[in-house]
DNA sequence: GTAGGGTTAG
């Protein structure tokens, strides 16, 4: 079926995809902003108001045919020259430059530029201030964003729908959904600044991000009631979220609903759906969707192809994935960092580290940016081949390049060290990551805990488990399985059984892994199943959850 | 002139 899918892709005709620009290191801000009290939404009122004096009514004509800013240095030079010009260029030109630098993701640079012009009239403009708020939002500095909002009131300016949508997005970037929804609700109630389609989209995305599909759909229904007409982006966001939650049928229903309303899907809508069905292994459906989109003159782009490359790689079909990459190049769709990283991972999964390394070098030779994920993928490949030295070299190399290894990078390395029995190095890395501000998560703990248990360092494992409890981490059944197994391996049968019997009191249910741990360790040690184990096995059997490969073992233990 | 959706690593 995958081959058929690939033939269909090959048969379609494509045009060139857009190229994406990746951010360079940002400058640091030394901005000083007005500290503002908490009543930053006092602005909202229920009746339309007379506009407070706004620079929007005093704008000069936009400057046409202005050169595009492609780097920060140019932006600083241009702004510097503009500030010295008499008469000074219009505020629109300043907005365009700041907007372009913000689009390049040089948020700190925008704030520095703003500080240069802040004392002049140019800095007292709704658009300019909104851009500054957006930059603070992207730098996760909501406090400063709200201070800039305070500046609006101090200057007698009226924040508009752009400003509040930006703030909603800022809160969402910090996972502060309730505060984002709070602004939205105030906008809905107020008469002077109603949410528009972008505001709706932003909050819909926020709900989706936190897995609250229901709230997102409710918002969509509110739009249907006439608040604002939903568009392809609103639908696509929810379709994507449903697909990520494997609720592909619901996503397809929403997709049909959207089309029945005359809202045309685009390449993003299709890519989300294809990703969703690929994740479920529904190749036939993926092919159908690919054919459907091409028949509508909607052509797969680098995202769509990357999904296909990743899916093929995860299925072990790396040769076919290479074929898709070749096809992309022939079609003038440049594979990007994500495409090649997926391919590298495919090779790593097959233990073909040499080929993964070659892909990595190809990325470098093509001038593609290698990021934390690319490095982590390659590090994982070396770890799986038990070449920890090379993996550690890559860790140092990425740090030298200014890349910051994250929790996943360290987790991969901790796992690699554990798997070759280097528990000392694993624990050093575990400390190093915390010293670097990368906090271990439940998965990192489970990796180290597993390493300690399997290497018979039970007392340290129990100590680590205590750390997790002290940190109030959400200890899941996987962690308990590791510890129960560790206790069994160490011959502490009673403690293992106590831990197992206490699971339900902690609101946890044993899963198939728990059963495997219990059965295997008991069989290995010649124990027969006790009442609680029997009960567990019977429950699992009745739910058809037992791996058939385990049945001989189960019989042996009964 | 400003806000804004889809692809990769444990």
Automatic annotation (TrEMBL):
Taxonomic lineage: Eukaryota, Viridiplantae, Streptophyta, Embryophyta, Tracheophyta
Gene Ontology annotations of biological process type: chloroplast-nucleus signaling pathway; mitochondria-nucleus signaling pathway
PROSITE patterns (alphabetical): PPR
Family: Belongs to the PPR family. P subfamily.
PPR repeat copies, ranges: 160-195, 196-230, 231-265, 266-300, 301-335, 336-370, 371-405, 406-440, 441-475, 476-510
Keywords on record: Repeat
One Gene Ontology cellular component annotation held by this UniProt entry: chloroplast
Pfam hit, one: PPR_2
Protein name listed in UniProt: Uncharacterized protein
């Amino acid at each position: 079926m995958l081959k058929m899918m690939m033939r269909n892709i090959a048969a379609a005709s494509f045009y060139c995809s857009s190229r994406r620009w990746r951010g360079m290191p940002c400058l640091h801000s030394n901005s000083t902003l007005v500290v503002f009290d908490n009543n930053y939404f006092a602005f909202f009122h229920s009746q339309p108001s007379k506009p407070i004096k706004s620079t929007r009514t005093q704008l000069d004509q936009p400057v046409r045919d202005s050169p595009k800013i492609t780097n920060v240095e140019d932006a600083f030079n241009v702004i510097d020259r503009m500030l010295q010009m008499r008469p000074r260029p219009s505020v629109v030109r300043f907005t365009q430059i700041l907007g372009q630098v913000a689009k390049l993701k040089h948020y700190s640079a925008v704030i520095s530029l703003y500080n240069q012009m802040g004392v002049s009239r140019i800095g007292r403009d709704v658009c300019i201030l909104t851009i500054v708020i957006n930059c603070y939002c992207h730098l996760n500095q909501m406090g400063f964003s709200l201070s800039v909002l305070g500046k609006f009131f101090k200057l007698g300016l009226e924040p508009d729908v752009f400003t509040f949508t930006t703030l909603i997005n800022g809160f969402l970037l910090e996972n502060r959904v309730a505060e984002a929804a709070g602004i939205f609700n105030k906008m809905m109630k107020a008469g002077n600044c109603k949410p528009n389609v972008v505001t709706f989209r932003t909050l819909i995305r926020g709900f989706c991000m936190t897995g609250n599909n229901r709230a997102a759909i409710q918002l969509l229904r509110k739009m249907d009631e006439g608040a604002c007409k939903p568009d392809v982006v609103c639908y696509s966001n929810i379709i994507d979220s449903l697909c990520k939650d494997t609720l592909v049928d619901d996503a397809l229903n929403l997709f049909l609903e959207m089309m029945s309303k005359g809202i045309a899907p685009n390449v993003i809508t299709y890519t989300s759906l294809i990703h969703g069905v690929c994740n479920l292994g529904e190749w036939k459906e993926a092919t159908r969707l690919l054919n459907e989109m091409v028949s509508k003159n909607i052509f797969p782009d680098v995202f769509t192809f990357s999904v296909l490359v990743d899916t093929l790689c995860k299925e072990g079909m790396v040769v076919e994935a290479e074929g898709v990459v070749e096809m992309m190049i022939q079609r003038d769709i440049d594979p990007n960092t994500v495409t090649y990283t997926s391919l590298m991972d495919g090779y790593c999964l097959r233990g073909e580290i040499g080929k993964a390394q070659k892909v990595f070098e190809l990325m470098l030779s093509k001038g593609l940016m290698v990021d934390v994920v690319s490095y982590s993928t390659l590090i994982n490949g070396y770890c799986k081949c038990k070449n920890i030295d090379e993996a550690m070299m890559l860790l140092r190399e990425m740090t030298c390049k200014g890349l910051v290894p994250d929790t996943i990078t360290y987790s991969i390395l901790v796992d690699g060290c554990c798997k070759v029995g280097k528990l000392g190095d694993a624990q050093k890395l575990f400390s190093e990551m915390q010293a670097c501000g990368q906090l271990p998560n439940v998965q990192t703990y489970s990796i180290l805990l597993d390493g300690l248990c399997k290497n018979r360092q039970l007392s340290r494992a129990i100590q680590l488990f205590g750390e997790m409890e002290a940190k109030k981490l959400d200890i899941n059944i996987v962690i308990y399985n590791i510890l129960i197994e560790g206790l069994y391996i160490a011959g502490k049968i009673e403690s293992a059984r106590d831990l197992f019997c206490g699971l339900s009191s902690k609101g946890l249910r044993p899963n198939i892994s728990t059963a495997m741990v219990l059965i295997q360790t008991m069989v290995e040690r010649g124990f027969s199943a006790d009442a609680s184990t029997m009960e567990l096995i019977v429950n699992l059997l009745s739910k058809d959850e037992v791996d058939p490969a385990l049945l001989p073992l189960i019989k042996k233990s009964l």
